Amino acid sequence: MKNIISSIPGYKIYEYLLVLNPHEELRNKIMHVKQQFFDSYKASTALYGKPHITLVNFVQYEMLEERIVQHLKTVAMSYHPIKIELKDYGSFPSHTIYINITSKLPIQDLVKQIRTESQRIMKLNDDNKPHFILEPHLTIARKLQHEQYEKAWPEYSNKHFTGRFIADAMLLLKRRVGEMKYQIVQRFEFQNLLITTTKQGELFTLVP
Which of 17, 32, 122, 163 is a Cys-bridge partner for 86, taking CB atoms 3.0 to 4.6 Å apart? Predict the structure, then answer.
């Protein structure tokens, strides 16, 4: 995130995260994996945050938040719930180990739809553009030191994990730049509705 401090004085800038959340039982199962990873390799990032699948992250002025929410609401109303299958582990050498998502296509389609609908309004400036995640994954630990990764990956490349859940909504989170903890902005339920708009671009009819 570059040139944020030099942006418009007096306006609050937030980091935003749009995610899919597993159900509680699966979250607890994944948190157990993350705790085990921390216990074995002392990687503190394994304990940061609750398990989630990131769709997009971006920084933006808080004053644009309501417009962003309206864009995301429109996307969610027309999108269908997603069946998500998790299986075993993958990595981004040499810094991240994650749980594989085998049902990637509907998540990728959702991310592309969000990008088409909201890319411009999510862009703060030329140095701070939204990051759309087109390789969906569920992180166990990131920002690993080289030694941590080299020790952990041979083990996790042979470990097994299975899980599945229905994502029936996406969740928008935010935090002040430099802070650790996110707060919930809004939950957007997938309603699988056909949206018709007027010539002025207003929502007109919703057909199941």
Answer: 163
Closest CA to 58 of 116, 120, 101, 107: 120
**Which helix (H) or strand (E) covers residue 203, if one does?**
strand 203-207
Q: How many helices (H) and strands (E) does the chain have?
A: 4, 11
Contact yes or no for 149/91 (Cβ under 8 A): yes
Q: What is the Cα–Cα distance from 156 to 65, expressed in whole angstroms?
A: 39
Q: What is the DSSP letter of 46?
A: G
Residues of the chain with pLDDT > 70, as a percent, come to 88
Amino acid at the residue 35: Q
- SS3 for 26? helix
Residue 61 in contact with residue 117, Cβ under 8 Å?
no
C-alpha radius of gyration, the chain, whole number? 18
Q: What is the pLDDT of residue 6?
A: 45
Angle in degrees, 0-180, between the axes of helices 65-78 and 105-122, rounded to the nearest 10: 150
